[in-house]
């Protein structure tokens, strides 16, 4: 019995050590993992990251009609870091690239902008939901304001063409959509333009 207990204890210690190493490794490479196209994540590690407040979960929905939560696809979701500063530090993006008035072409800047908006929404208790159809159309966020469903697209720069936003609006007959970018406030073709710095103003 003593030998059996000792073996059980050693097994628990090894499992705990392995789990701790996995958490440390995942946290250290969080920025790479979050934006990889193919991801495999141990559920227990994901739960630890989420309950520790390190990541935010954005659930996929299959329809853009209210109530949105009814159409959640529990098998598919995106993860964001809960602090965009931590994301930029881990990814190695230098501050000059973010603060520069020149529109520098860095593809990862789109991911940083999207993460920043997710963080702002979470702070305002806006449920994090996104939509994706069977083809390639994907809307970054979808929010519900009463009976109104609003698609939200995030752009890091001033180039703001968004085919997916138009597809969503046409499919679900939305009154308008929201686009967050470097452009100023405005309204054109059924899309409300909101500058990125004002993301905190969106609070259904």
Strand content: 15-25%
For the sheet with most strands, the description reads: 5 strands, mixed
Broad shape = globular
Strands of the largest sheet, in order across it? 5-6-7-9-8
Helix and strand composition category: alpha/beta
Strands, total number: 9
Q: How big is the Rg?
A: 20 Å
Low-pLDDT residue intervals, each spanning 5 or more residues: 1-11
Determine the N-to-C terminus distance: 60 Å
Brief rundown of the structure:
With 204 residues, the protein is of the alpha/beta class. The protein is built from seven helices and nine strands; from the N terminus they run αααββαααββββαβββ.
List keywords for this structure.
204 residues, alpha/beta, 5-stranded mixed β-sheet, 4-stranded mixed β-sheet, 7 helices, 9 strands, globular
Describe the structure.
With 204 residues, the protein is α/β, with parallel strands linked by helices. Helices cover 39% and strands 24% of the residues. The protein contains 7 helices and 9 strands. Strands 5-6-7-9-8 form a 5-stranded mixed β-sheet. It has a 4-stranded mixed β-sheet with strand order 2-1-3-4. A hairpin with a 2-residue loop joins strand 5 and strand 6 (148-154). It starts with a helix and ends in a 9-residue tail after the last strand. The model is unreliable at 1-11 (pLDDT under 50).
